[in-house]
Backbone:
């Protein structure tokens, strides 16, 4: 608790400093970031960024892991802290997400004290959100979850991933479809908002239909407020990458992943909001069920009606836009792969062999942060 309160105290000091310097209310994001970086150069000249401890060990000799590891640090430096706080201020400063773990394991008294400390420091916050595990929520009595709500919690994000018990067992999720349903129901009955993540593609080629249909069934019974789509991306040195090597898992083709999303949207009953807010998703399918079901299905069908080359061109464009949105440009290896097909109007995919388009798509996807 002392560490939490010290974090809050330091955030207050930085926040007041940015406000006094007129940065927290400075025009656009770009203008504010520019002023913040100039201020950092003035108040902390020559400060070296924090070292990225353990990066080499994490990346090893795998190019994809080296790439992802290069974006993470074990310790934040002053610039990270200032820019993070500034981003929060410029985004409205109304919400607070607590931790990247299963916060339902915390005693309610601890959780309550932490929220009280944050609220006293930043009274403008109107929503507190955590990650939770459905098995943890399913084991709790309604009164226990109500205590979290009384403490000030508003929403719990659950990673249900799939509604198929067979898929959940294979993936060693440690939870069942029934626990997913019970957790969301208890959460909602306690006055909290359940938001869930589902993972198209997680069933692989073998269980694709079952994965999609059972996920829709669970969502219909669980009735979460939000359903967030996170298409499967397989990382090196994981159990799933080993299962691919041994033939125990066959990755779902991209078109079939889109069909899974269609199945989920078409078969989920009740009111919920579908959100495609991940760079791993090919299509940006967002809307409220059941009212916007037909519009979302129409968007998916437009993609499915494309020719094979049309689908590949669409995928290349979509993945490239996602990458540039995340990083603000392209890396030398992506640019090198595209250079022979660049024109004044853009990328001439008509001259690209299909296997070359697939190769570039895979390269881009290997660098996207899901």
Residues:
């Amino acid at each position: 608790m002392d560490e939490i309160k010290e974090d809050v105290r330091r955030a207050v000091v930085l926040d007041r400093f940015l406000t006094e310097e007129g940065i927290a209310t400075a025009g656009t994001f770009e203008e504010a970031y520019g002023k913040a970086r100039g201020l950092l150069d003035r108040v902390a000249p020559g400060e070296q960024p924090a070292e990225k401890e353990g990066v080499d060990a994490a990346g090893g000799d795998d190019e994809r892991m080296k790439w992802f590891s290069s974006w993470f640090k074990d310790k934040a430096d002053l610039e990270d802290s200032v820019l993070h706080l500034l981003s929060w201020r410029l985004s409205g400063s109304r919400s607070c997400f607590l931790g990247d773990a299963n916060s339902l394991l915390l005693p309610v008294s601890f959780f309550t004290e932490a929220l009280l400390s944050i609220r006293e420091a930043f009274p403008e916050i109107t929503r507190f959100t955590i990650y939770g595990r459905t098995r943890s929520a399913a084991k709790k009595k309604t009164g226990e979850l109500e205590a979290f709500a009384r403490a000030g919690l508003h929403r719990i994000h659950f990673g249900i991933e799939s509604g198929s018990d067979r898929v959940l067992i294979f993936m060693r999720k440690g939870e069942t479809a029934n626990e997913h349903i019970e957790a969301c129901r208890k959460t909602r009955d306690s006055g909290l908002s359940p938001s869930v993540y589902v993972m198209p593609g997680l069933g692989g080629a073998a269980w694709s239909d079952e994965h999609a249909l059972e996920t829709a069934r669970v969502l219909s019974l669980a009735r979460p407020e939000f359903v967030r789509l996170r298409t499967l991306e397989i990382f090196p040195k994981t159990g799933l990458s080993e299962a691919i090597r041994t033939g125990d898992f066959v990755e779902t083709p991209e078109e079939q992943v889109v069909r899974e999303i269609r199945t989920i949207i078409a078969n989920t009953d009740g009111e919920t909001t579908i959100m495609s807010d991940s760079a791993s998703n090919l299509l940006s399918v967002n809307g409220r069920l059941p009212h916007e079901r037909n519009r979302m299905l129409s968007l998916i069908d437009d993609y499915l009606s494309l020719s094979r080359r049309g689908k590949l061109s669409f995928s290349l464009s979509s993945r490239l836009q996602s990458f540039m949105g995340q990083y603000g440009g392209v890396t030398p290896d992506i640019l090198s792969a595209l250079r022979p097909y660049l024109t004044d109007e853009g990328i001439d995919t008509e001259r690209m062999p299909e296997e070359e388009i697939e190769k570039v798509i895979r390269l881009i996807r290997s660098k996207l942060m899901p």
